[in-house]
Amino acid sequence: EKEIAKLEQRAATYQLVSGSDRQAVLFETLPLSKRTREGLQKAKYLECTEIQRKAIPLGLRRRDILGAAITGSGKTLAFLIPLLEILYRERWTTEDGLGALIISPTRELAVQIFEVLHTIGKRHTFSAGLIIGGKSLKDEQERICRMNILISTPGRLLQHMNQTPGFDCNNLQVLVLDEADRILDMGFKRTINAVIENLNRERTTWLFSATQTKSVKDLARLSLRNPEYVAVHDQA
Ligand code: ADP
Ligand code: MG
């Protein structure tokens, strides 16, 4: 209890002292839970990349984020770390249902995100699952209702929203749209709009994209509320 109150306080002030200079920021100096810090240490992540340094403090304060950063800049941890922290501070348990939803354009990318989550989330007790098709719908249906964190591809997710009894997203705290430009390039615009219509509005949303096209801006307008804009360019 005490640890959580302290973390919340430090997260609120962190942005003020960290500023936007180019100084290195070590993960251990961020207001993160012991569990997350240990997960990061185990995986030998020591220092934030630029997108992580900018996005994590905003994420911890539950701001909506429109993030523009090139491939390889470290976006996965930029959203997974605050996602874990938000659920931890909410004392999320199995009974609370789905707390965080990550949407990725392809199965391969979804699996990569899952692996990073598995590594840095080892010390947490949340349940996490992949919803990417390829297996029987029925298998997924049985597991999906017990998950706290889901990583999914758009088509399969919408299929479950329409067809899986008891799949309830009403309690969702965090939505992540990863590689939004690729999601749209692959023709998922209507699918993603339909998914968003099924979600509660009180959630926090983070949209990451390598490029800022017109269709990404449209999706941002539809899915984000008063977002902070975070950009990282080539020199990172
Ligand atoms: P993006 O999603 O922006 O393309 P990733 O999140 O996949 O980038 O990260 C790219 C690579 O950088 C991965 O191999 C990842 O392990 C590594 N990486 C990410 N953040 C850090 C960090 N803070 N310290 C060291 N390596 C990192
Ligand atoms: Mg990525």
Automatic annotation (TrEMBL):
* Location(s), subcellular: Nucleus, Nucleolus
Domain annotation Helicase ATP-binding: ranges: 56-230
Provide the family line: Belongs to the DEAD box helicase family.
Q: Which residues form a coiled coil?
A: none
Q: What is this protein called?
A: ATP-dependent RNA helicase
Domain notes from UniProt: The Q motif is unique to and characteristic of the DEAD box family of RNA helicases and controls ATP binding and hydrolysis.
What does the UniProt function comment say about this protein? RNA helicase.
